[in-house]
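$ run holo --ligand "zinc ion" --emit tokens
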Amino acid sequence: MPIATPDQYKQMLEAAYQNHYAYPAINISSMVTANAALKGLADKKSDGILQVSTGGGGFASGLNVNDQALGAASLAQHVHEMASRYDILIALHTDHCQPKAVEKFLMPLIEISEERAAQGRPTLFNSHMLDASSLPLKENLDLALPLYERLARMGMMLEIEAGVVGGEEEGAAGGHGARSEKLYTTPEDMMEVYRRMQEVKGTYLFAATFGNVHGSYKPGVVQLRPEILRDGQEALRSSFGADAHFYLVFHGGSGSEKEKITETLEYGVVKMNVDTDNQYTFTRAVAEHMFRNFDEILKVDGEMGNKSKYDPRSYLKAGEEAMAARVGEACDDLRSAGKSILQETTVG
Ligand SMILES: [Zn+2]
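-- output --
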């Protein structure tokens, strides 16, 4: 199918919210990882989200060009082409963009979408994240609202974050130790986010923090408190009426305890970002290829090696296959497997 339309993306989120499942949001940084994400989702008949970070975009543009926006645009074009061969819905998103990167990363991408929309074509991305969580909440929202309005005009969505996701991702260092209280978004902050975001008519995603951290940690290091999300949603309902709710995003899902993941689905998490676990899985498969075929990959003692073993396609295919399986596992964890809204409409 072509990339999800604005209406389809909204339907995806609402179906997930109502039925307590979430979409894996898979970070991609190359054609290979994009194809792995598509394969993993499709094999599970799950809709899903493919997302590009600033660093992923830079990588995709190559060492010499090193243009984060251009690389992200290129990956998005690739996904637009390939998604049409799959019978699931894919939404395209960009991950963490800090305030200092807005001009260089988000603006060029938004301008491309505006040009495409003016020609009656689908926007390049479906949604973008602004991560201004390092700023005080008021400044964070002051920055978010004009962006949100600009995106909403094209039917696009904005993802924002309040509170701090721990760990580090693409140089976005989260809170540790002294500032650890910021790892948990308060109900007051959540109500303020909801109140301000109502100024624009549109749809947005909200990454509230509940002790989640980027990266992978040994068991016990991370204290996830999903009840923070439950309490926030309850606070919304009591202040703004029974229909008030957030579409929540779970950052730093890699390595989380499965039962905590499941619990968040009850509280309105509709998107969980998965990056680190896929990175490890991909590299694990490549490492296995290298170790198993060591003697054929390297030209040792005047021998010629084995082209079929050192052709990059041989180990990148192994990486694609392994990552696709890990993406499938995320579909199972998030209960999105078998729930493509396309399947449900065709089946009846
Ligand atoms: Zn994140």
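-- notes --
Residues 6-276+321-347 form a domain with the TIM Barrel fold (CATH 3.20.20.70).
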